[in-house]
Amino acid sequence: MADFVSGFWNVYVIGLVVLSLLFCLFILVSNNKREAGPVELHGHVWDENLAEYNNPLPRWWLYLFWITLVFSIVYLALYPGLGNVKGILGWTSIGQYEAEQARAADRYGPIFAKYREMDVAAVASDPDAQGMGQRLFLTYCAQCHGSDARGAKGFPNLADSSWQWGGEPEAIRATITDGRMGAMIPFGATLGPDGVKDVANYVRSLSGLAHDSLRAQRGAEAFQQNCVACHGADAKGMAALGAPDLTDENWLWGSSEAVIVETITHGRMNRMPGFGEFLGQDKVHLLTAYVWGLSNKPSR
Ligand code: HEC
Ligand code: HEC
Whose CA is nearest to atom 19 of ligand 1? Predict the structure, then answer.
């Protein structure tokens, strides 16, 4: 309500509310006759013979209306609701949210602090901490990585031991805190459709998939010229750039020739959002331990 562009709307809303209340008041007062007087028919007839008497409204029923009227006036005096008027109590939804946040921080802060002191391997072997980590994961991460953390096309599997950006606790922490941007540049124009197909066959040969060996041979050369800068001379990837290992059987986008051709032709832009500021380091620590623990069996 505080964000009206012009003061007119503020006055307009206040006017509407006050007019409605006055109208209710008028209706109530004008129907407030106590004595029934001689009971007469109203003159309204429905369904041929259904007629209405002009009895006064029942008292209890009328009182309900009075109560709602008084309630709304008291409410509008105490709470925000009448245009920009803030209300005597100064209540705001933001204020309530912040108070709840502060209460939660008081309550859970010490628990988080305890785990914050422990290293990732120790947290990963604590069942309570892993339970908290899993709940956080289901809330903030599962929509992209899946509830079992096994990912989907374009969203990496976090439960295996193959890592784009590194699987050591500090690398995982950095990924979650700051996010990552995987950028594979397009080569369609440089290599042409035939050249792309050659390299794609070479890439498939690296992990022992069926391939055209003549194309793969030609592709090997193009790979050395164009791809090793990021994927490494051995094609085993480079964590600093998020370039994946092309020799294993884990695929982010897919291993079919068609998908590899698409990746090489058009490139890929893939973003992992950063959660450091939003969740705070305590929760990131629990999540780091949870994700690390998925592929590292900590000793119990
Ligand atoms: C909006 C979708 C999205 C959400 C939400 C998301 N991620 Fe990701 N995440 C991605 C994408 C996409 C990548 C791959 C980035 C790339 O290709 O460079 C990724 C990569 C990662 C990696 C690196 C994997 C590797 O192989 O190096 C980790 C670890 C990770 N995410 C953990 C998390 C955690 C923990 C959460 C919850 C706090 C989370 N992600 C939430 C989309 C998401
Ligand atoms: C600028 C660095 C860079 C260069 C150069 C580069 N790549 Fe990549 N490549 C990446 C990154 C980063 C990814 C991961 C993209 C993502 O996060 O989705 C990737 C992904 C891929 C994938 C998908 C792997 C999967 O698991 O689905 C293939 C295939 C691939 N690159 C092949 C190549 C080939 C072939 C070349 C040379 C023609 C090449 N790349 C050149 C950085 C590079």
Answer: 272
